[in-house]
Every structure is written in C-alpha cells, then in structure tokens.
Fold this protein.
Amino acid sequence: KKEFAVIGLGRFGQSVALTLIERGYSVLGIDHDREIVQRLSEQITQVAALDATDEEALRAVDIASFDTVVVAIGENFEGNLMTTVALKALDVRYVVCKTTTERQRRILLRVGADHVVLPEHDAGRRLAHMLTGPGVLDLLELEPGYSITELRIPRSMVGHTLIETNLRHRFGVTVLVIKREQTLTVSPSANYMFASNDLLVVLGKNADIARLSELT
Amino acid sequence: KKEFAVIGLGRFGQSVALTLIERGYSVLGIDHDREIVQRLSEQITQVAALDATDEEALRAVDIASFDTVVVAIGENFEGNLMTTVALKALDVRYVVCKTTTERQRRILLRVGADHVVLPEHDAGRRLAHMLTGPGVLDLLELEPGYSITELRIPRSMVGHTLIETNLRHRFGVTVLVIKREQTLTVSPSANYMFASNDLLVVLGKNADIARLSELT
Ligand SMILES: Nc1ncnc2c1ncn2[C@@H]1O[C@H](COP(=O)(O)OP(=O)(O)OP(=O)(O)O)[C@@H](O)[C@H]1O
Ligand SMILES: Nc1ncnc2c1ncn2[C@@H]1O[C@H](COP(=O)(O)OP(=O)(O)OP(=O)(O)O)[C@@H](O)[C@H]1O
C-alpha cells in the first residue's frame, strides 16, 4: 500500500491527512508547531515536529521512503519553496504543493513540484459560479468555460418530460444524470417526467448553464 | 443585475470578488486592513475599509442593499460570527460564510447564515481522493461515496472499443463523457475506440472508480 507524508498541518493539510487515513492509508504528519503535532498525534498514524526546510531533519524521518509528500505550508512562500527544493534534492518521487497565486505555482513547478493546487483560489471561483447561477449547487470544470453542473430543477420544468423541455435546442445543454432523493437516473430517457425535488446534472457551456439556471 | 459584497479580502475572498467581476457583476469589497483595501481598489468595483463586526459601519455602506453578502473572514471565528449576526440584524437577504469546522458551520447556520462553505476542508478531501486514485484528475461528489470523476485512460484500454472494455460489468461505472484534446464526446457509442490521450468522465461509486483508476 502507498504511504503518504503531509507537511504543514493547517486546515488544508489536516483535511488531506485525515481523508487519506479514512481511506485506509498510513500518513506521517509533520509540522514545526509542537502544539499542533501533539493535538493530532491520536488521529494521524505517525507525527513529527520539525522544520521542513531543514534537509537533515527530513532525512532523519526517511522522507524519501514515502511515495507521495504533500507540502501544505501556506502563508510563508519561502518556507514552501525551500521545503519543495529539499524534498526533490532527497529524491522524493512525487511532491504536491499548495500555494496562493499562479506566479507562485509556476515557480514551484520550475523547482520540481510534480503537482500544485490553489485551494482558496479554486474554492473562490466555485462559490462565485454558484452565486451567479441561482440554482447551481456544485460544478466540475472540464475546460475553461465548459463544465458539468449540479443544479436545482427550474419550477417551470416540473410536470413536463425531458423531451417536452427541449433543453438541448433551447440551451445547448445535455442532461447526464437526474437525482431524486437517493436515486440516480443516468442518461434519462426522453419521456422522463420531472418532479419538484429533482436535481439535474448537466453538461454544457457555463454561460448556457447559467441561462438555464435563471429559468424560474 | 444582482449586486454582491465580499467581506474579508484574503485569498478566498479575493478569488470570489474577482471571479464575480470577471462574470460582469459589480462588487463591494470590505476589509479592516487598509493596506489590502488600497491594493485592491483598482480591481474591485468599490472598496471600503471598516470593521465588519460594527453594525453602524455596515449601515453606513448600506450593506442591506446588496442581494448577497459573502463573509470570508477566516482565522478569527468570533469576528466571523459577529459579522454574520450583524448582517442578519440589518436584514441582508442572503449571507454566505466560510469557516473551518463542521461545528462552526452548524453555529453559523443557527445564527442565520444562509449557506456555509469549508474551502480548505473540501479542497483537502478532493486532493486526497485524487492522490489515492492514480489517474484521477478531478471529481464532483453527488452524494457521499458516489461521484462523477475525471480520470486518465488506463493504458490497457487504449486501442479497444468502449463495448470491448465492458466497464459497466467489470467496474459498475458509466462513461458519461470522453475528452480528447479540445473535443468532448458525450454519451459515447459502444464502438468508440479509445486513444492514449483520452480523459474519461465516469459516474459510479468512489470505491469502484478507484478500482478502475488502479488499472494500468
Ligand atoms: N517550515 C515549516 N516546517 C513545518 N511546518 C511548517 C513550516 N512552515 C509552516 N508550517 C506549518 O504549516 C501549517 C500551515 O501553514 P499556514 O498556517 O501558514 O498556512 P495556511 O495556508 O494559512 O494554512 P491553512 O489554510 O491550511 O489553514 C501551519 O500549521 C504551520 O505550523
Ligand atoms: N472584523 C473584520 N472586518 C473586516 N475584515 C476582516 C475582519 N476580520 C478579518 N478581516 C479580514 O478578512 C481577511 C481574511 O481573514 P484571515 O486572513 O483571518 O482568514 P484566512 O482564512 O486565512 O483567509 P484566506 O484563507 O482567504 O487567505 C483578512 O484580509 C482580514 O483582514
């Protein structure tokens, strides 16, 4: 089984570590704040209090033996950068970093990070999409401007069939799945009758989906 | 057109405000740090430096005239809570908050928040799902344990048709969309031939999708 290390146990790092453990993996959690390490020692497989920018300290916990190391250090970009460089110098196979801006992301990729995420930036975009599409609940952007979106059924569609609503012609969207209570109907047939508590999962351009979600 | 206010212009708040502006909406950005307000005054429609827990200060910028107010104050939960209570006391129609833990979320909902997001928590879960499914790129969880997932095509499927791979019987997953370069094939036909750079968008149980993504 794969082994993971998570450096930086703030809100994001804790969530990564605890979800990996929930899925049955073992995790080494690292932070330079002894209090945080102490508090999490019961929930994380193994913990260590050290400064991750110190190559000797990383060598001492045999960091290179972990398949994947997540660097979840936030505010201090220099610490984030120095840690990433140290991990690659110690031949860690796969390093994932989190950072704040596109510019920082490019720098981290250039010094060897294998994957970089921008959690607050992505979450902010997702919320803005949800706020500007009234019934939008969640979305997965397949490419810029084109997404799979989960939205509440517009009232005017209730009591009509999928073919009667003519969504493909009127909005250019495809209904992939319909969720009603705990039941999921995949690739619904033309004569599916919509009910008031249906949730639609549709694919299309963000602008077309926003038009559909404004339908009342 | 709808008007938005965003209180707290940290990483998350900025991303919400700037994405709303990108989509053509006007935004009032509020922060008690004058330096941040100064730095963002060119990019955000209107800005104000004030302490959002102060009801008089909120009344002075006519906060109740905004359709939606996002409270993006992080580390200081008390400030987050007092701001939410003040907004609801001033009759703001729709208040969205961000916070860190489930417990804090329940408290915010009880004092009147209309919607609460946990950006770092959700981003951490999403990354952990991606790390434990080798080819997984992104996912939209429709209900706990059941999601739509974007994943790289397993090598052993390349050169075979959809019907030959028999995914529904072997893994219990449905292929909703296939992405190749900039082309999206929705509800692919049985004789679709897979290529090495295809990305699959599949629906199924997280555990079944993880099994599929471990296929080499
Ligand atoms: N050099 C370092 N070595 C080990 N741990 C570190 C180092 N620098 C920072 N950390 C730890 O990383 C964690 C996250 O850092 P920080 O709080 O700056 O980021 P953040 O982006 O606000 O976090 P989050 O949003 O995940 O709560 C903190 O717990 C901090 O103690
Ligand atoms: N009472 C308040 N009134 C107005 N602004 C506030 C108040 N309290 C905090 N803020 C601002 O909210 C912003 C976000 O707060 P903070 O940095 O504590 O959270 P954070 O969760 O680390 O942010 P992020 O992850 O979005 O960067 C900061 O810019 C801060 O100045």
The two ends of chain A are 50 Å apart (CA to CA).
